[in-house]
Amino acid sequence: MVGSLIIAGISLFVLSIQFRTPNRPEAELGQLLAAVALIIIAGRVLGEIVARLGQPRVMGEVLGGILLGPSLIGSVPEWFPDLAPLLCGLATCPADWPFSTHLQTELRAAAEIGLVFYMFLVGLELDPQVLRGRLRQAAAISLSSIALPFTLGIGAAVLLIQRFPELGDTDRPVAFAIFMGVSMSITAFPVLARILIERRMLRGPIGSLALACAAIDDVAAWALLAVASALAVSSAMPAGQITATVADPAPGAMMAPPDPVVILILAVAFVLVMGLIARPVMARVSHAYDEAGHVPAGWVVAIFLAVLGAAFLSQRVGIAAIFGAFVMGLIMPRHSGLTHDISRRIEDFVVVVLLPLFFVVAGLRADVGPLFDQPELWPIALGLIAIAIGGKWVGAMVAARLTGSEWRASAAIGALMNTRGLTELIVLYAGLNLGVIGQDLFTMLVLMALVTTFMAGPALGFIDPHGRLARTPEEEVRAAAPPPASAPRPAPARAILVACQDPKNLDSLTALAEALASAGEPREVILVRLVQPSPLTTRFATQRRALTEATEEVRVRVAGLVERGRPARGVALSSARIGEDLTSLAADEKTDLVITDGRHSIARPGQPGGAVRALLEDAECDVAVLIERRTAPSIDAGHALLVPFGGSDHDWAAVELAAWFAHVGGARLRLVGIAGEGTDGRDAGRLLANAALAIQGLSGVIAEPSLVEPGRIGILSAADDAGLLIVGLSSRWRQEGLGEVRTAIALEASVPTLFVRRGSRPGALAPSETMTMFRWSSAGIDPYAAPPPPASPGIAPVAEHDETNPASADRR
After folding, report:
1. What would the CATH number be for the domain defined by 629-812?
2. How do strand 753-757 and strand 622-627 relate by DSSP bridges?
3. Domain covering 103-239+257-463, topology
4. Is the pTM of this model over 0.85?
């Protein structure tokens, strides 16, 4: 359908050209809308590509902005002149293709508004709590990681002015040198935080320290940028070229530049006004939030106006407008709910729509072509990259080692602090707008930003190949101590792992695990709430809030289990690779069962997807996947537990869980088969009767055999009054996924459904060798029917090799 929609849209576009129907008065608006859509698509596609390579998604969007400029797309008509009529509708494409000069002006205006609000979010992101307990060490590392590259950057600026004056403004050498120093010493707090989250280093000592250092780095860098922009503005014209004074300007004459001391004094006054007057005013929004439970509409308007006003005043006093927006974010009250509410209102539109426009605006001015035309510039570019990497890395690493960190940890901090990301691009764009750095130098420094950010992940992998600086999921679970119980109890030898992906299902999963843990051998319930980082944002505060909320959800459920006498513990994990982490947790030998949710992963045509597939493929223990409906599972005497049964290993695993549920909740257990005979002549009625006897003998639970009409209709009708439908996977699930009937059950059943896959570990229910397998999902039409292999004593034989279960052959 998506493909049809795209084809239809293209067809309408072509027809509009053929019949000349475009609304001409709105032609420029149409071009702008099409350009914005193209930019968003390119950014998302490249962001997805680099994310799959283990890189920050935002860097793919930056790369997309550069590629849409003259470095690639803009050069296509020059490289392939024959394509010009197709691309532009003209014999030759204009020099500013694909974005006209007028369109670039509109994109730039929108991008810079987005940049102002993004800088507000950056300031809002910085929380003094990250410095708690590590201020001295973080300050020492941060200052060292700024001082060395800043000094090297100034030295490089002096050499460039002497030998390549065209790369910068020789009339403003001080401003040029400071901009070079700032560009070498930047660290991108948001991108660094995202790397720490995805590599599970955030809760470790190295991650916390690096985050604190980056926070100090960010504040220092923006302060230095304010100084550099003040010096650039104050020396906009050489003294000998001043033709007028501020008091008596002649028409068309250049006014005298302001005194840099005056600019710096006004900048300090601006910061004091924001901190001493604006901050107490904005603190009242926190009270308004507490009273209403959200930010009232009036305060939303006030915050937006305050951001714009701060940026405007910052520009008026002679420093960059983005500095004012950043300060506005810094003075906002630090209230978790308030910060989240404000960010939610701003972030999606700014990050998804306006920020990619900035990447393109910057990319249009970063042209790699001249570097190829002037080979002598490449040694300069490589030298600047080396200075940036060496200065930042060495400065941070040496300071970390001197303040008590071991060499491996110190090197990792150096690699993390070398992440420049989007923050570097903003600084360079400011320098280019002020005319302090030239376009060729801007391109070189953009390449430096890309290289230093892309290398952070591989560098960490080289420094710490075994992940010793990160916290594995197993370590986080082990560190999650259970809450104190009324009386000490010995820790059970076995466990049930509850892996919740959607918080709406946490109560149902917990209830199912509690029922299973109460039956037979005591088992510990381990609750793991998995929080996947948002693909739309690199903001640390958003991820931290989600993790904090998940931690509280788990704490409440664990406390309830302990109060009811169930051994339990829990933890919330931030996980960028949920499937791998769940499989790692399931590898613990004490884990009998992993119970998780994943409707969209399993109830789909073909193979299951996402984390569910990883569990089904690799977990050695049994796996159960819950598909919840409007009602939660009901395990009591008033509801039946329904198990479609055919005798396969996975069906017996489903029966085993159902027997435990029935034993604890007093629910009726019903075994359902398809009336009639299979293609091999087997009788479902006899199979169900024998299975019911085996279940009663092994578990003491009475099972009611029941035959229904073939296909999904019979199963769905039988499940109408059930409290829980428990379905074993097909023995061919690797080839067919759920299969037609099971997929229909997953999508159409009116009751909660639990899909079960037997692992390689032995199950509790292992019936006699007289049992045979009957394919309930395709009775009478089974194209795969085959005679069963010889049965082994005490084991339920299956009709074919079960590829999902490496140990099933041994059991047979």
Report:
1. 3.40.50.620
2. antiparallel
3. Na+/H+ antiporter like fold (1.20.1530)
4. no
